[in-house]
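task queued by scheduler; priority normal; single chain, no ligands, no partner chains; default sampling; output format set to structure tokens
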Amino acid sequence: MRIATLAASALMALVAPPATTFAAPPVVGGCEVFPDGDSFNADVSSWPVNPNSASYIAEVNRSGGTFLHPDFGSNPAYGIPFIVTPFDQPLKPVIFTAYGDQSDPGPYPIPKTAPVEGGSDRHVLAVHQGECRLYELYAARWSRDRKAWKAASGAVFDLGEPLQGQRPDGWTSADAAGLPILPGLVRYREVAAGSIDHAIRVTFQRSARKYLDPATHCAAPADAPTWAMPMGMRLRLSMSDTTLNGFTGQARVILTAMRRYGLIMADNGSNWFFSGQTDPRWDDEDLDQLKSVPGSAFQVVDPPGAVLHSC
């Protein structure tokens, strides 16, 4: 029996997947972004490849835009800005115009002078110090006459708690997937320090009528393609060390993170566009190297224990 037990244990050791490791939580505004062991900060390099990975990638590339594209740079018109507000920041009312029934009610500690993302999405993101909560708005505008923010939707995340379970199933957030935006941004300070230790937000034109934990929402028509990506899907760069050696500076830091912590599908948008912080210090020549990386260099991976939900 002892020999049989040892033989069985040895076999399990051979076939069991490696344990997931996690980065120390990133810090923004003195707040850790989710606790130790949160899936947003998981090392995905040992996660199994989804058996339908090639079909998912092919479906994305059929709709155009087949190379990576950093949706940020030194031009302040690009990227997603965020602010850190002090604990005594006055609260402002929020009037929801579209998805109020799936939004966390106001007031929010976001000043009327908060930066607003350019373009149609008009995201507003604020980390509230001391409380360590993240407040995010979608399609936001300051209403002078109402002395309030008007937004299509809004969400509040407790950065000190695991992300999973913070939003009810079926609810959106300031992003279509029901995920927080700021934790998935490529932020200048972390790139300058040489390491991104979290998943990176990415968009695709088509999505499925499904979502994968920790996402909570889908935004797709009934006739969505069979192999469209579910919201919350995780991807991993499969390029080798030798190939990465051809990239330098900020681009290499970002690609290293994509190989280790991967991408997470967060919204419908242009294919392979990934999100970063608005900051004039970005090196556009460095970032342009990323536009040579094809989507075919990525694999869809399966997070251990994550549940795929249908809408």
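post-processing summary
- The chain has a mean pLDDT of 94.
- The chain has one domain: 20-310.
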